Amino acid sequence: MAVPPSRPKGAGNPFKLSIDPADRLLPSGSGGEMPPREPPPSKKAREPREPRKPKAPKKNGGNGGGRRIWLRRLLMWGLTLVIWAGIGVAGIVAYYAIDLPDIDRMTAQTRRPSVVFHSVEGETFAAYGDLYGEPLELAEMSPFIAQAVLATEDRRFYSHWGVDPIGLARALFVNLRAGHTVQGGSTITQQLAKNLFLTPDRNMKRKVQEVLMAFWLEKRFSKEQILGLYLNRVYLGSGTFGVDAAAKRYFDVSARKVDVYQAAVLAGLLKAPSRYSPLNDPEASRKRTSDVLDNMVKAGYIDQKTADTVQVTGAAQLVKRPIPAGRYFADWVMSNLDQFGEVAGKDIVVHTTLDISLQRKVEADLKAMMAGPGAKAHASQGAVVVMSPDGAIRALTGGKDYDDSQFNRATQGLRQPGSAFKPFVYLTAMEKGRTPDDVYDDAPIRLGNWSPGNYTGKYLGPIPLRQALAESVNTVAVRLVEEVGPARVIATARRLGITADLRGDATLALGTSEVSLLEMTTAYAALANGGYGIAAYGVSHITDPQGQVLYQRQGAGFGQVVSPAALARMHDMMSAVITQGSGKAARLDRPAAGKTGTTQDYRDAWFMGFTADYVTGVWMGNDDYRIEMKKVTGGGLPAQLWKQIMVAAHRGLPARPLRTPEIPAEPNPAESVGDFVAGAAQAAGDVAKGIGGAIDDLLKGIFGR
């Protein structure tokens, strides 16, 4: 069977199939044999090829291509990481920059107003708030200040751009070698950024913001401006901000005139202002100053000879500041500062009535008494108030040691006055017409379930009132309260300045109602000054730092509050307390009057007394009311301390008689009745309305408003 011939290529053959002519079968007429087939040409015979060139030997084991590939990959990954790291850093910076402080308000000082206290002699004895000196340009300051600071804090200040990588690396190395923090890596620019804008928190956000602000400062200000701004604002201890305030505080000179040694002292304070303060620890300050001087030598600002010389002579330049005094008094004034008109929020100078010399004497005597006889008698605390008869406070201490306890026992402490309250009972009786020579029976008395007895446990029988008060006889005082009525006694106490809540029963005679030492002293002042009601005060006037008067006290007291005749009789009886009664330990070289006070179980001991020139109150006891003293009475340690203080207060003053009114020939019944009617009405009002109004009146009197 013959195979039909193939179709021509591309002619009606959709599959484009073809048969090689050599593969065709011949028709049957050809004898059925095929011609011999020529073999196909071999591949080698098809196209002659050039011989290959010999390959060059491969370097390093023949892996160069692979290394180039890995190098390219490494570079690509590194570039990718750098790009992503940059994006991450940019994101962090943007995140922390969102709540950056308002840099345009950086020069506005945000600080507490300063309050400086001057004694009556003009001496500064206390200060509150932030004290800033005169703002100075860097060129106006002593050049030694900048030299000492740069040598110690930032030697590369003029070469870095706000952050010092070299300084950071050096600090890291030094700290690692020492095993603890020895050096800081922050530049002055960073410290300024922290002081101006940021909180003292130690966290990543704060550090990033600190760096950002440092960059901004370096771009915005010159190096001199940055350093000057830093030196004008940095805290240097003792409430001072800036080198000028610190120079005046420690050396009493302007920053313009600071010498090498003084500059080294100031620069040394930057590390730890309290620890290296020449006032707090002179020896620590001296050692730190020596380190700063060594730094100045290494930095080339001074030579070694100068450093050695000033270390010997410089310490003598420190101002010898007296031991701080009057801090209880200053606290009391500060707590009532809003009573002095429009002075809140301002820098002010408070001119007080305090006699700073007497104040130091009072504090020293109280501390010595508590450390010696007081400690032996289990008396751990005390308080003293000294005032002029017009109410001007000359000395006040609320405890034996302000550093140990800031609680003011003179103004805040409420304690039972014991028999020191009896003069108000006797005064009420005198105003009703009784006299010191009137006789009352010292005998047992019983009021319901209460049977008051005497301290001695004995009874004297019929005795004159003069003797009853001098010897602090309890039964007679109780009989007087029962006779005149508790309401009248309360009214008398109110007129004299007592605002504390008082019990309206016979126990009032023995001083069972708690009062403050300041109120008791105020009430006794009315007995000392001729019978005029006063309010204790500690401020005469207030000025701004330039001397402009912002407040002037104009209070004139409350007028006559005690009958002259009754007051004369009280002077008679209270003088006998010191000359022949329970207060003989307080006897002076001049006329004086007073009263002892001792409470149950020896928990409180008082001595209150006055002369023509001073009124002084002393309290001793323990803060823990459960602790009893060892038989300490008002006529013992308190009377002794009272005498020491009064002797010091009167040094150089002539002896003068008490301000005793002349006793009329006959008592004036109308006057007495009128006083009692007014007193009874006032007492009734106190019971009904409380003591709020009385307290308000006292505050107004204290602060002249």
Task: Throw out a few tags for this protein.
705 residues; alpha+beta; Penicillin binding protein transpeptidase fold; five-stranded mixed β-sheet; five-stranded antiparallel β-sheet; 22 helices; disordered N terminus
Chart the SSEs and their pairings:
Blueprint: H1 43-46, H2 64-97, E1 115-118, E2 124-128, E3 131-132, H3 143-153, H4 165-178, H5 188-197, H6 204-220, H7 223-233, E4 240-241, H8 243-251, H9 260-269, H10 282-298, H11 304-313, H12 327-335, E5 348-352, H13 356-376, E6 381-387, E7 393-397, H14 422-431, E8 439-442, E9 461-464, H15 465-470, H16 474-484, H17 486-496, H18 517-528, E10 539-543, E11 549-552, H19 564-580, E12 593-598, E13 604-610, E14 615-621, H20 637-649, H21 669-689, H22 692-703
Parallel strand pairs: 1-5, 3-4
Antiparallel strand pairs: 1-2, 5-10, 6-7, 6-14, 8-9, 10-11, 12-13, 13-14
Major sheet, described briefly? Answer: 5 strands, mixed
Count of runs of 4 or more consecutive helical residues: 22
Question: Fraction of residues in helices?
Answer: 40-55%
**Shape, principal axes of CA atoms:** elongated
Into which percentage range does the β-strand content fall? 5-15%
User: Rg from C-alpha positions?
Assistant: 47 Å
**CATH fold label of the largest domain:** Beta-lactamase
Determine the N-to-C terminus distance. 145 Å
Q: How many discrete domains?
A: 2
Question: Mean pLDDT, rounded to whole units?
Answer: 84
The CATH homologous superfamily of the largest domain is called DD-peptidase/beta-lactamase superfamily
**Order of strands in the sheet with most strands:** 2-1-5-10-11
Structural class computed from helices and strand pairing: alpha+beta
CATH class division of the largest domain: Alpha Beta
- Count every beta strand, where a strand is a DSSP E run of 2 or more residues: 14
* CATH level-two architecture of the largest domain: 3-Layer(aba) Sandwich
Q: Unreliable segments (pLDDT under 50, ≥5 consecutive)?
A: 1-17, 25-34, 667-705
